[in-house]
Amino acid sequence: MYWSKYFIPTLKEAPAGTEAISHQLLLRAGLVHMLTAGVYTYLPLGYRVLKNVERVIRQEMNAAGAAELFMPCLHPLELWKQTGRDEVLKDVMIRFKDGRGREMCLGPTHEEVVTDLVKNFVQSYRQLPVILYQIQTKFRDEMRARFGIVRACEFIMKDAYSFDRDAAGLQKNYARMETAYRNIFKRLDLDVVVVAADSGAMGGKVSHEFMVPAEIGEDAVAVCGSCAFRGGASVLETAGGVCPQCGQKNLAKSPALELGHIFQLGVKYSAAQQALFLDEKGERQPIIMGCYGIGVSRVVAAIIEKHHDEKGIIWPKAAAPFDVEILTLPGPDDAEGVEPAARELYRALTEWGMDVLVDDRPDSPGRKFNDADLIGIPLRVTIGRKNMAQGQIEIKVRGTGAMVLVPQQEAGGRIKEMIAKL
Ligand SMILES: Nc1ncnc2c1ncn2[C@@H]1O[C@H](COP(=O)(O)OP(=O)(O)O)[C@@H](O)[C@H]1O
Ligand SMILES: [Mg+2]
Ligand SMILES: [Zn+2]
Predict the structure, then answer these.
(1) Residue 148 has what pLDDT?
(2) I need a labelling partner for 274 at 20 to 30 A (CA). Which of 6, 225, 255, 293 fits?
């Protein structure tokens, strides 16, 4: 991709009224744009990041044996009345009458829809277990929409649902999903704390939240100042500030952001919606369910919240919109052959399967360097007239600031090595 033909509207300053660092950087780096409060466009660079996060989630979900489908956003309210959640979720649900006079809502979550679906196809214990998931837009009329895409009215969620014949099956799938979640957050460089949680409006008894300590978090975790222990905020009350791991009285409360939430639902939905199966004895039983959510778009904000410096974003490799940015600084007549060198390197790296952005804009070096730091692509390769006169190209690691000068012919190989080490 060549920047001059692409669409990365970077901003020098964060727009007024933006508090969260992630929100400021999302706007400044040209990743998202606000249409109205709580509603965002993902611009090309931001959309690439979103797709990368989705890819990691998809790979881990598929590896855990979940099958991807795509359910509608548009739901008949009738379905929600079967569980009474048309009332429970009244405040967040966006509802209306359509042209045919049907009462409809935009799905804030999908337990009712997926239960109705599975009820249509599953009759026997032989068809269980099954795990279904989707990556899709959710709508919630959040009155406290804030921090940009952290709490939005329209956002992307990965939601998965497990269906089992017995409690043992649910335990197994729940553990499998927990492992998948740990893998996902690890691959995205998010150091999560898994905390036993309240099930709230979702129902069921057991639930766990995946929290990442962050200043803007609306939840909290306990963090030990003397060892690596981190746990649920409830530890603070039960242990009276004494760390259960090292015994030091050095536990403190840290704000945290909820990125994922998994629930053992049991039969709440299957019983209410009559999603039954015939067990081995030929008796009708409600299917035993679990549900598992990750706020995909919120994860993008969390990555920025955890990976930035005063100059901008520092993308972890798995989420980075591009692997390499080639920054060109040609002279007026390009006697040193900066532009052809950039095109040649671009071709070679792309052929090796790397995603490369070339900043070929005719802007000042200062502007181009600042923007490179701001958008945070892991490797910056500068091809400038001075170094090119000596046949040299500069490679800089965004995360560490480490810089090397290499001969032009060796640049491709060195970049490949450096990417592999990130
Ligand atoms: N308004 C929102 N904007 C962005 N992400 C959200 C929003 N609400 C929930 N999420 C994400 O979806 C995940 C699953 O949602 P859920 O647990 O149902 O939400 P909540 O805890 O807000 O009731 C959350 O862990 C969070 O990452
Ligand atoms: Mg939750
Ligand atoms: Zn400790």
Answers:
(1) 93
(2) 293
For the whole model, what pTM was predicted?
0.97
In contact, 212 and 190? CB cutoff 8 Å: yes
CA distance 22 to 7: 20
Nearest alpha carbon, ligand 1 atom 17: 261
Q: Which residue's alpha carbon is nearest to atom 9 within ligand 1?
A: 295
Domains of the chain: 3-215+256-309 (3.30.930.10), 322-421 (3.40.50.800)
Report the percent of the chain where pLDDT is more than 70.
Answer: 100
State yes or no: cis peptide before 129, omega within 30 of 0. Answer: yes
CA distance 54 to 51: 5
What pLDDT sits at residue 361?
Answer: 98
- The answer to whether 302 and 144 are in contact (CB under 8 A) is no
* Ligand 1 mutation target, pool 158, 216, 258, most atoms within 8 A of CB: 258
Instruction: Indicate whether 386 pLDDT > 90.
Output: yes
Which residue's CA is the closest to the ligand 1 atom numbered 19?
A: 261
C-alpha of residue 236 to centroid of ligand 3, in Å = 12
For residue range 222-236, list pLDDT tens digits in order.
999 999 999 999 898
Residue-wise pLDDT tens digits, 106-152: 999 999 999 999 999 999 999 999 999 999 999 999 998 889 999 99
Phi and psi at 410, nearest 5°, equal: -95, -5
Is the distance from the beta carbon of residue 110 to the nearest atom of ligand 1 less than 6 Å? Answer: no
Q: What are phi and psi of 121, to 5 degrees?
A: -115, -20
